[in-house]
Design brief:
Order of helices and strands: HHHEEEEEEHHH
Number of strands: 6
Shape: elongated
Number of helices: 6
Helix content: 25-40%
Number of domains: 2
Largest sheet: 6 strands, antiparallel
């Protein structure tokens, strides 16, 4: 199959066939792991990358391609800061996409192959000095990933927006902000806490 024209349905069918083959051989193969194997066999970095790249599905709304190693455990990847100004389109579920030129300051992606949960947080700075935060959350129970993003003139507002209703930050948000803080003094000031 052509990587660019492959359907998600075809990949899922191939994963199901792989599971049946393993079962017939007396081995257990979890569905999530089968999906990862099939995606990699077709040249994708992960199942999420295959879903995002498929032009045949309406699920193509990723902003930054990332990858994780296949595992039955939770995997996490921190993407390095990019010192190259690029054009970005950050898609949101129920709002217009954000388009800007700027730098990727920090990103963290976490995926659990046991339960199909996935989270990614990305922090950017536009050439005009605005800060953009993006958070993606997905699991097998959702019809499509929950994608939220917003632009801020001050990184303190961005950090506040990323906090949940109890004022906490999940691990992907903390790690993405930590990476961004190493690259940008204003993010460091907004995210870090001075204790005397």
């Amino acid at each position: 199959m052509d990587k660019q024209n492959i359907s998600i349905a075809a990949l899922k069918a191939e994963a199901s066939a792989l599971e049946a083959e393993a079962k017939a051989a007396g081995k257990e193969l979890k569905h999530g792991h089968a999906l990862e194997l099939v995606a990699r066999n077709h040249g994708f970095a992960s199942w999420r990358a295959a879903r995002a790249a498929s032009p045949i599905e309406s699920d193509n709304f990723g902003s930054v391609p990332t990858s994780n190693a296949a595992s039955d455990k939770t995997t996490q990847e921190l993407l390095p800061y990019s010192n190259t100004i690029e054009s970005w389109v950050v898609r949101r579920n129920d709002d217009a996409p954000l388009r800007f030129k700027g730098l990727l300051l920090g990103q963290c992606e976490e995926e659990s192959h046991n339960n199909g949960q996935y989270a990614r947080t990305t922090v950017y700075r536009s050439v005009s000095g605005k800060y953009i935060a993006e958070h993606v959350l997905d699991d097998n129970s959702l019809e499509r990933p929950i994608r939220s993003a917003a632009a801020f003139s001050d990184p303190t507002e961005m950090v506040a927006w990323l906090r949940d209703s109890d004022g906490r930050l999940c691990r992907t948000k903390i790690d993405a902000l930590s990476a961004a803080a190493k690259q940008d003094d204003k993010v460091d000031g907004a995210f870090g806490e001075d204790v005397d």
